[in-house]
């Protein structure tokens, strides 16, 4: 069974990581590479593994009817009517396949592009994006995760980890001075900290990195850009359009963050691990996903941001075509779906195909490394770039993935 485990400690570490990200941006070196189609990416993470045959790959005779979309060959489940109206913007990959049917292993795979390996902790996709193109907004994190922990930076260093926003309806934690600390006292504390840390070895990148994080944390606390986290500034009609849900508010915040220069935002919708009562639970989850994703696409398009913002909607695997004794579907990594939009992706297309049940991929299988190579290429990141880990091991941005040119404009 799937569960989101997110402790306060993880949150603090995640927040610290993001602040380090901001601090060490100069070290990362990075501006978007020439030819990049996308400047930013929003990942909608459907935690638990959504049933592909009940959402993006409906089959004749299925429990949910298939409905037409704005794309001629693309049909979606009937409980995604608003998303269907944006079919011309979507590239639905119906031939994703892997061998990882365990939640933790599959979640690792779909966040890093690598199967778990006890000898190395691979960087997440967000961490790579932070390192490679995160350089334009020094007052905001490069990598933000909303309503979930996402995945850490691996050997790239804590500075490239996610800044975690647990509740998009509230300000990030610890950005205001405590009641007993005024600005003058805060400045004195900062000075004391600098004096103590001056005795440490500044050649150690972990120490210098943490010092830079403290400085950036201060800048964030005093930055007018903090207002971007306040979604109440949006008109009521806009907030309603995304849906009165944590995920809907997260998608609205994601749009605001990307608009303000954040490079990668992940928004989590949990609950797709439907071993029991699959149809009712999946129907309700689509009721949350549909207004949020369709509003996100509509707003990015209206604000002329969709062409430069890559939107990805996926989970860790699909679910079995057969129904179990508890009216549920079990894990199924052999065949499943992922949805892409914007950021130089050619919309209005279905890529790949499963058999009549949705059990096997029968046309154009897509591996996880190839999906990641497609995403990084659109962001101007060389999927074959190699980085040496602290123990001297060369690790690629992707696991020898090749971009899928047919998905690109």
Automatic annotation (TrEMBL):
InterPro entries, sorted: Alkaline_phosphatase_core_sf, DUF1501
Protein name (database record): DUF1501 domain-containing protein
Q: Which organism is it from?
A: Pendulispora brunnea
């Amino acid at each position: 069974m799937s569960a989101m485990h997110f402790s306060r400690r993880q949150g603090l570490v995640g927040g610290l990581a993001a602040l380090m990200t901001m601090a060490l941006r100069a070290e990362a070196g990075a501006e978007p590479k020439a030819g990049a189609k996308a400047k930013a990416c929003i990942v909608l993470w459907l935690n638990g593994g959504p049933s592909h045959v009940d959402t993006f790959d409906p089959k004749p005779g299925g429990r949910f009817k298939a409905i037409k979309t704005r794309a001629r060959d693309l049909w979606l489940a009937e409980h995604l009517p608003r998303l269907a109206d944006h079919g011309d913007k979507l590239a639905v990959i119906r031939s994703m396949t892997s061998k990882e049917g365990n939640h933790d292993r599959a979640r690792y795979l779909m966040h890093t592009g690598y199967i778990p390996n006890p000898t190395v902790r691979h960087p997440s996709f967000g961490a790579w994006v932070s390192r490679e193109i995160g350089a334009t907004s020094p007052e905001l994190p490069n990598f933000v995760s909303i309503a979930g922990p996402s995945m850490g930076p691996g050997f790239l260093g804590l500075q490239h980890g996610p800044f975690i926003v647990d509740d998009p309806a509230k300000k990030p934690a610890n950005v205001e001075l405590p009641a007993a600390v005024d600005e003058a006292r805060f400045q004195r504390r900062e000075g004391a900290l600098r004096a103590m840390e001056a005795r440490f070895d500044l050649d150690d990148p972990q120490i210098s990195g943490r010092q830079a994080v403290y400085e950036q944390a201060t800048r964030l606390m005093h930055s007018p850009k903090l207002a971007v986290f306040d979604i109440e500034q949006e008109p009521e009609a806009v907030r309603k359009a995304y849906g009165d849900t944590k995920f809907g508010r997260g998608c609205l915040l994601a749009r605001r963050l990307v608009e303000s220069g954040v490079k990668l935002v992940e928004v989590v919708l949990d609950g797709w691990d439907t071993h029991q009562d699959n149809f009712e639970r999946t129907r309700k989850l689509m009721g949350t996903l549909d207004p949020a994703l369709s509003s996100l696409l509509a707003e990015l398009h209206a604000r002329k941001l969709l062409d430069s913002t890559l939107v990805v909607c996926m989970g860790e695997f699909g679910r079995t075509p057969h129904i179990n004794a508890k009216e549920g579907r079990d894990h199924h990594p052999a065949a499943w779906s992922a949805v892409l939009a914007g950021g130089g992706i050619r919309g209005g297309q279905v890529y790949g195909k499963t058999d009549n049940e949705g059990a096997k991929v029968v046309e154009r299988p897509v591996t996880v490394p190839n999906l990641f190579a497609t995403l990084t290429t659109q962001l101007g990141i060389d999927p074959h770039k190699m980085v040496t880990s602290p123990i001297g091991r060369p690790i690629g941005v992707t696991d020898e993935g090749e971009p899928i040119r047919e998905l690109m404009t």
